[in-house]
Design brief:
The complex is a heterotrimer of chains A (about 300), B (about 325) and C (about 425). With about 325 residues, chain B is an all-alpha fold. Chain B is built from 15 helices and 2 strands. Chain C has helices at about 10, 15-30, 55-70, 85-95, 110, 120-125, 135-140, 165-170, 180-190, 210-220, 240-255, 270-275, 285-295, 335-345, 345-355, 375-380, 395-400, 400-410, 415-435; strands at about 40-50, 70-80, 100-105, 145, 145-150, 150-155, 160-165, 200-205, 225, 230-235, 280-285, 300-305, 315-320, 320-325, 385. Classes of the chains: A mainly alpha (about 300), B mainly alpha (about 325), C alpha/beta (about 425). The interface between A and B is large, with 131 and 137 residues.
């Protein structure tokens, strides 16, 4: 699985190693080039392996712990292999009260948040990158300012706003809150991706008879699709991981989200590491699933469009 | 690694193809804007409506609160007591506040630089790796990224624990020195910061790397071809093609990283709670303890305003570059 | 480039359309969500904290309550500890707070002093606890200017757990009953298990101030005192210093050097004990179960005794626990007070003890653990408990790393004079932190 595989089409067949200084590419012999490319590729793969291990290890530790019987979890010498795997932690975790309510609440809120942020965000990004108008700069800065306010400081005033709107304990209110904190990021990200696409591409589409919005949709959107994937996954993870708002704005047990469930493994009587890690594994799965799903879509979307203008 | 350039690349062609020219008055898109154009306002309407409806009041309220006495007493009785700039005076005369500001600025800088450098390196490497390796690395990154921050922080605490810790054990087994019961987070604040920074970078890199990689795949390949024909080396290609084209994304990632790293809380809280002896107390931790544990919300609001200001200062350069990047030249 | 080559046909199936549909579909679903409360009867909402009173126990209380109050339904909502103060702040300030809520005993002072809660002094006398007295560690924080803003609900305390096999191996016949005996027995264990790597006779994390503060109180010291309208740090007083020095001695003599900077979360003391790397720990009753789960071989071989005083006999303990309070804006205040009366009465406190192993709120029940040797020790120890300072600024002291770092520094100190200078420094911090700005 790759992030965006059609890109490989564009990557030169002989990959220039970043570390190989080249005085003049034209004067190098073919052999020398390929030998160096090979050595470079070797070094690159070793570096990739190290990065892979370091990146994955904490995740591995989480998964490993999730499958360990409680007595094997905290040991004087680390135990890297699950000798007696058990799913007891998982069973405990999903048998917590209201688990399935949490699942559906979290899925609804997160998906809705991403969908709304993305739609609203793309529109705003178009305005902010393809037009020059009064208030453009102000709007961009307001968005950043929203992102820069420490969220803990906004919990109390937001609570009263939602109370006024009769949206406490309502998934809609929570979704709205999440969108607010996803939106600035989404708009700015998408604007960045739109800007890196030459405007000529839409111009050409319009010459071909598309309307302005039609040109955006047909010419631009396929090109920013990889960026939309990165953005949407991030927006999803943000919403998926929100705790404080979900905890404070939802006062009924049936309206909690999964982060609240994750917190329930920590009580005044200590932390249930088995349950917490099993819960974390379950909690991580949908994000990975989404990634796989979304990135496939993009691959096919990209492959369908002839990008070269 | 500096390449000798026989011929500098044509800056104009890069800029044009890179779309930095933006909405300028050229091409059909531009020409349509002869009369007053309502289109951008329509496009902005949905997001603006949401923002005004939901966050307008809270943000105004936050500024108001920073000039008020607001503790639980006032919160429960709904009384408003203005106290001028007293909250700001409280903050600015607190030595622990300034210590935490300094720490936060340095910590944020370290995290942002670390994240961007590693992220860019990974993004560049991704485009050169074989499909299989790239897939493996991407999956590892998504997994790390998707791990709930609270669980991630607990695992890192575990890895770097001085008793029953994994890192100490591994380093000792590899005969890299005497790391038995080596205390990473409990005695030396700098060392504790190193561990926290590594944790932040670890979880921030996936997003940055994948975003940059997404950007790199959008760079029209002929620009590289052209540059290569001009004799540009790998470094020159990077400096003169990749970076200029990715400026909007790079700048944005820097700004977002500054904002996020400045407000990091959970990870520090789980790992050190601001210790040893307040040595890792960043502004986020300081505000949480001083303003929100103590329920002196007025002081907390003032601290938030100050921290927004600091974020603005730290990201000023990039914000300016970025905001202007959509303008006609 | 032509528009065909842009894949316009496919684009219609691209992300925007389904996304729009999804967004509006979800919004519609949300809009259609039906509110749950029915209007015909009164609903009493009670907030309880996670991991404590179980559904069986509060279910019994609710059943009795609903029988007494026809037409009233009781709804218990379980809350998480993380972020609870923010949640309480907003809920208490709103027009629709819970009718009664559990509040951790260290959080109670700020709410008691801020006018968000009802003074329950008037119902205190009506609660059926016989001739019992409230546990001090629960009652003191709820007192404010002669009022009582929370009724003690439940407690948890810590005693010494020991590995009976190890005691036997080291030739220790009976549990120590004084601090000097504890040290002597500990040294026997250290000698017996000197070949065990990283062995602690009494594993005592340096940041474990819940357990360490016991020694300060035992020597007649205190954390801080209130005089002339002002809180003053008291760790550098001679009595407190004696206690701190005792903590340093015990910690350094009986626990590993690595534990001096450790907290109780990783590794957990249960794990250290279960892995037989410690002869003793200071732990709660729930930890006995955790250890037995981790290492079933220890089942039936875990003994417990109250942390011994330097004078002999048990030392005073730190009490964790909660009070239950009625918010001023509660729409059903009288009903809420009735529910609190029922829940805190001996009948349901006994049930809570039996079912959930939680320490009941008053001294008249100290004897109910007679049948369980484990709980007997805990119940008796809890009768002699101290509260932390009922200062509004106390939450700041425990909020960050200040108090844990302080005790950790004491554990790392090399001399009594160093203990004194650390204590003096901390007192001056307390002087500013405890008093409201």
């Amino acid at each position: 699985m790759s992030v965006v595989s059609p890109a490989s089409r564009w990557v030169p067949t002989v990959a220039p190693a970043p570390s190989a200084p080249r005085t003049s590419a034209r004067h190098e012999t073919k052999e020398r080039r390929s030998r160096r490319a090979l050595a470079g590729a070797g070094a690159l793969n070793v570096a990739a392996l190290v990065f892979f291990v370091v990146t994955l290890f904490p995740v591995y530790w989480m998964v490993l712990t999730a499958f360990k019987p409680t007595g094997d979890i905290i040991t004087p010498t680390p135990d890297f292999s699950p000798l007696h795997p058990t799913i007891a932690g998982f069973v405990d975790a999903i048998h917590k009260p209201f688990f399935w309510d949490y699942v559906s609440n979290t899925v609804i809120v997160s998906v809705a948040t991403v969908a709304i942020s993305l739609v609203v965000g793309v529109l705003a990004a178009l305005a902010l990158s393809r037009f020059r108008f009064k208030g453009r700069k102000t709007y961009l800065i307001v968005l950043l300012a929203i992102q820069a306010v420490p969220q803990t400081a906004l919990v109390i005033p937001l609570f009263f706003t939602l109370q006024t709107l009769h949206q406490l304990n309502e998934l809609l209110g929570l979704t709205g809150t999440y969108v607010i904190f996803d939106l600035p990021f989404t708009v700015w990200m998408l604007r960045g991706f739109v800007q890196s696409v030459p405007a000529d591409i839409e111009d050409a589409a319009m010459v071909d008879g598309c309307s302005r919005l039609g040109a955006f949709r047909r010419a631009l959107l396929p090109l920013i699709a990889p960026g939309m994937v990165a953005t949407s996954i991030f927006a999803f993870i943000q919403a998926w991981n929100q705790y404080l708002f979900a905890d404070v704005f939802m006062q009924l047990n049936t309206r909690y989200t999964l982060t609240v469930w994750l917190q329930s493994f920590e009580t005044n009587r200590g932390t249930d590491y088995s349950g917490l890690m099993a819960g974390s594994v379950l909690y991580t799965l949908p994000v990975v699933l989404l990634f796989v799903l979304v990135q496939r879509k993009v691959v096919s979307g990209l492959a369908s469009g002839a990008v070269k203008g | 690694m500096v390449a000798i350039e026989p011929k500098p690349l044509s800056g104009a062609s890069v800029r044009r193809a890179g779309g930095e020219s933006g909405p300028g008055g050229r091409g059909p898109v531009g020409r349509l804007r002869a009369r007053f154009d309502w289109m951008p306002y329509w496009l902005l309407a949905p997001s603006a409506a949401l923002i005004v409806l939901l966050i307008g009041y809270p943000i105004v309220r936050l500024f108001e609160t920073s000039f008020q006495v607001l503790t639980l007493d006032q919160l429960f009785s709904h009384k408003t007591i203005w106290n001028g700039v007293d909250n700001y005076r409280t903050i600015f005369t607190s030595t622990s506040f300034w210590d935490s500001v300094l720490r936060t600025v340095l910590f944020t800088g370290a995290c942002v630089v670390g994240t961007m450098v590693v992220g860019m390196a990974v993004a560049l490497a991704l485009s050169r790796l074989s499909r299989l390796v790239r897939g493996a690395v991407s999956v590892a990154m998504v997994l790390a990224w998707a791990m709930p921050p609270i669980s991630a922080a607990i695992v890192w605490q575990w890895l770097f624990a001085n008793q029953y810790g994994v890192v100490d054990w591994v380093l000792t087994e590899l005969h890299l020195g005497t790391f038995q019961n080596f205390d990473w987070t409990g005695q030396n604040a700098l060392l504790a910061f190193v561990v926290i920074t590594m944790m932040i970078v670890w979880q921030a890199v996936p997003f940055v790397a994948l975003s940059l990689y997404a950007g790199i795949t959008q760079v029209p390949q002929e620009l590289y071809e052209a540059a290569r024909v001009d004799g540009a080396g790998a470094w020159a290609l990077f400096r003169r093609v990749t970076v200029p084209l990715l400026t909007p994304i790079i700048g944005l990632l820097v700004i977002l990283s500054v904002i996020w790293d400045f407000n990091v809380f959970t990870q520090i809280w789980v790992l050190t709670q601001g210790g040893p002896n307040g040595g890792t107390e960043t502004l986020g931790v300081w505000s949480y303890v001083t303003a929100f544990s103590a329920n002196t919300f007025g002081v907390g609001a003032a601290a938030s305003v100050v921290s927004m200001f600091l974020v603005a200062v730290m990201s000023f350069y990039y914000v300016r570059v970025l905001v202007r990047s959509g303008e006609v030249r | 480039m032509t528009s065909d080559s842009l894949g316009g046909r496919r684009w219609r199936k691209g992300p925007l359309v389904p996304l729009c549909a999804a967004a509006f579909g979800v919004a519609a679903m949300l809009g259609a969500a039906v509110p749950i409360a029915s209007a015909s009867s009164t609903t009493l909402t009670i907030w309880l904290m996670t991991g404590e009173i179980t559904a069986k126990v509060y279910g019994a209380v609710n059943k009795a309550f609903e029988a007494q109050h026809p037409g009233v339904t009781v709804n218990v909502e379980i809350q998480q500890w993380s972020g609870i103060t923010t949640k309480l702040d907003t809920a208490l300030a709103s027009s629709s707070p819970p009718d009664a809520t559990e509040i951790g005993n260290t959080d109670v002072p700020e709410y008691a002093a801020s006018g968000g809660l009802v003074n329950l002094k008037s119902i205190e006398g009506k609660i059926a606890i016989g001739s019992g007295k409230w546990l001090g560690g629960l009652e003191q924080p709820a007192e404010y200017q002669g009022g009582l803003y929370g009724i003690p609900l439940l407690a948890g305390d810590r005693v010494v757990l020991y590995n009976e096999n190890m005691f036997k191996a080291a030739g220790i016949a009976s549990a120590p009953t004084s601090e000097s005996q504890l040290l002597a027995d500990g040294k026997k264990l250290e000698a017996e298990f000197s070949s065990t790597k990283d062995y602690s006779a009494l594993y005592f994390p340096g940041k474990y101030w819940y357990a360490a503060v016991t020694m300060v109180w035992d020597h007649g010291g205190s954390i801080a005192y209130y005089k002339d309208g002002k809180w003053t740090g008291d760790f550098a007083s001679p009595n407190s210093l004696a206690g701190l020095d005792e903590f340093r001695t015990v910690q350094q003599a009986l626990s590993t050097p690595a534990s001096r900077t450790a907290n109780t979360t990783l590794p957990t003391q249960d794990a250290v004990f279960a892995k037989t790397q410690a002869g003793m720990i200071v732990g709660g009753d729930w930890e006995v179960a955790a250890i037995e789960k981790d290492n079933p071989k220890l089942k039936g071989h875990i003994g417990e005794f109250a942390f011994p005083s330097y004078k002999g006999g048990p030392a005073p303990v730190f009490l964790g626990g909660s009070d239950i309070a009625v918010p001023k804006n509660s729409p059903n205040r009288a009903l809420a007070e009735d529910w609190v009366e029922l829940m805190t009465s001996n009948k349901y406190q006994t049930l809570m003890y039996q079912d959930d192993n939680l320490i009941p709120n008053n001294t008249s029940l100290s004897g109910i653990g007679a049948s369980s040797p484990v709980m007997k020790t805990y119940l008796e120890a809890a009768a002699n408990s101290y509260g932390t300072p009922a200062a509004p600024g106390w939450a700041v002291v425990t909020g960050g790393d200040e108090i844990t770092s302080f005790f950790s520094n004491i554990a790392q100190a090399s001399s009594s004079s160093q203990v004194e200078s650390i204590a003096k420094q901390f007192d001056s911090y307390l002087d500013t932190a405890l008093n409201k700005p």
